[in-house]
Amino acid sequence: MSRYGSENLPYGVFSRPRGERRLGVRLGSSVVDLSVLGGQLAAPSLNALLAAGPAGWAAARAAVTELAAGSPERIPLSEVTLHLPFEVADYTDFYSSEHHARNVSAILRPGEAGLPPHWKHLPIGYHGRSSTVVVSGTPIRRPHGQLGEGVFGPSRRLDVEAEVGFVVGVPGRRLRTTDFAGHVFGITLVNDWSARDIQAWEYRPLGPFLAKSFATSVSPWVVPLSALVGSSSPLQDPQPLDYLLPAGPGFDLRLSVEWNDTRVSAPPFASMYWTAAQQLAHLTSNGASVRTGDLFASGTVSGPARDEVGSFLELTRNGAEPVKLADGSVRGFLEDGDKVTISGTAIGAAGVEIGLGEVTGTVVP
Amino acid sequence: MSRYGSENLPYGVFSRPRGERRLGVRLGSSVVDLSVLGGQLAAPSLNALLAAGPAGWAAARAAVTELAAGSPERIPLSEVTLHLPFEVADYTDFYSSEHHARNVSAILRPGEAGLPPHWKHLPIGYHGRSSTVVVSGTPIRRPHGQLGEGVFGPSRRLDVEAEVGFVVGVPGRRLRTTDFAGHVFGITLVNDWSARDIQAWEYRPLGPFLAKSFATSVSPWVVPLSALVGSSSPLQDPQPLDYLLPAGPGFDLRLSVEWNDTRVSAPPFASMYWTAAQQLAHLTSNGASVRTGDLFASGTVSGPARDEVGSFLELTRNGAEPVKLADGSVRGFLEDGDKVTISGTAIGAAGVEIGLGEVTGTVVP
């Protein structure tokens, strides 16, 4: 059974050879052109629909569902090019998996292992680069950079981070966690490519910069929140401050990371400590505004088990314990030609399993 | 003599009551409407001109200079509203004053005083928030945030950072320092408002986030590089890696910081360690792209003397040594109602002193 049936209908932007960009929804292994529906759905990117707000989103979903339930023209995915589904305004990335944060501290900062003192008091985050958010399938050129004192060259410790991105529709500031569903349109899978050697040398005291700014890949599909069902919030101890309460929903999304043809990890999103609603409330708590097209990502999703981690830094213990792929080769970090695919599934609002799209990229020299 | 004569002619965006936004240049204490010149100069923001590249910039400057030399209609500044002069794509902020970096280390991290080990090997930077870049004069609402464990409220250590911003015109990636003049259109003064208490609690390990994302003010005027003259590069020891050479020009800009009606500091831009050309080369060295409308700021400009620092953190030693203002009041950090104005001058390409505009803001509760 397809995970892209009428219960899912994620939005994307496609074009046919020599054709213009159009909005579409995925139905099975085909795309249904939404331009026939007019209005915001006849635009060349999702931004107009994003700005329409919850009533507009519901109306669009009703129209799209009705269209899909008829006998619409289905354009095979193999015949289209998929594009970045929306114009990214500000891109923010969080660090909200406790397992990931503990693993990173233990691996990279053994002298200060454990969580930073504020980690359980606020969702730590930073701003990333919007200009280099690219759609799944875009080749990832191995970044150059300073790998240590006096050494400039291609990164030798190129890594991935499997994340879930949240796409902001309605602008706002000083949002409460309860404003989440009124402002966030949907989710998209994210690979926050990271050069660990560049990062280690550059990141104090202002955080990661060139280690992550060369490319961030996103799925071509944005799954609307209305296709998903929230799960119980994570247990949080100590209790967060009032502006981060109520925590808002968790989401029981199951990710999968494939390294070339080998599935190496299955990160469980339900294991995240901070919720997306809390990230949004924190992000705007100082008075900062979010805009239509803002993308904020969860941070690397890592569960408690070794085969549930969202980065190769954790999977291979910084390269010290390489993994064996199906073809018998071993890997510490990414080699040129390697392909990484992050995909995901969830039990959707209709009670059936739905696909969250996939984000893939191949490393080129 | 005006610092805004025909040798300067900085660009901005203005509107008259109930009128649309138009490009203009400042001439004395008036604005000259550029829409009569048509083309990119008839647009409602600078972005089209920015994208035109060096030949377009030169043609525009010739046309604007000719217009100003005639008897154009002069609209008094008092009759117009000035707007953000361009749409900001990615905003990046550097940390390139050695005096500032040493002062901050000594004040905030006395246990690790001195420069971080990589400081003289690369221009440290981070990404900021584009959505909250605002034009001079926009009131600055005191940010709320976590000031420490269990404490959420208005920042008690609200500060400024006097900086120089560089406005990117022509997109590119992997730029050399020698590409600087082909890609950067001009400069604008920047106040990177900073909440030191929020920053101290949040910034490890991913850098400052909410401490700076609530507002970044820029001058309404962008001075084209062609109005400026480069000065000798700063002395750099150790010699930077090849991708950061040649260093590119320094700029002998003199900033001024006024706290209410008292001039408290005169930061000398010539004292910066890393050049803007090196910042641009570093920013794109990993393959990251810059776009039309990108803004990258120098980092706080601090000279060696106490009355040359670009932040109040440094001026008052983190509030421990308050300054006395002209009205007899004393200040550690910003109080509600305080107004800060950063202005600047340079000896321009024509050999006469020119004004760099000003960026001002008043703190509101």
Automatic annotation (TrEMBL), chains A, B:
Binding-site residues, substrate: Y95, R109, Q199, Y203, T300
Domain Fumarylacetoacetase-like C-terminal: 92-350
EC number assigned by the record: 3.7.1.2
Entry keyword set: Calcium, Hydrolase, Magnesium, Metal-binding, Phenylalanine catabolism, Tyrosine catabolism
Pfam families, per database record: FAA_hydrolase (PF01557), FAA_hydrolase_N (PF09298)
GO biological process assignments: homogentisate catabolic process; L-phenylalanine catabolic process; L-tyrosine catabolic process
GO molecular function: fumarylacetoacetase activity; metal ion binding
Pathway assigned to this chain's UniProt record: Amino-acid degradation; L-phenylalanine degradation; acetoacetate and fumarate from L-phenylalanine: step 6/6
Cofactor(s) annotated in UniProt: Ca(2+); Mg(2+)
Chain residues that bind Ca(2+): D93, E161, E163, D192
InterPro entries: Fumarylacetoacetase, Fumarylacetoacetase-like_C, Fumarylacetoacetase_C_sf, Fumarylacetoacetase_N, Fumarylacetoacetase_N_sf
Residues annotated to bind Mg(2+): D192, K212, T216
Active site, renumbered: H100
Domain named Fumarylacetoacetase N-terminal: residues: 7-85
Protein name, as recorded: fumarylacetoacetase
Organism per entry: Paractinoplanes tereljensis
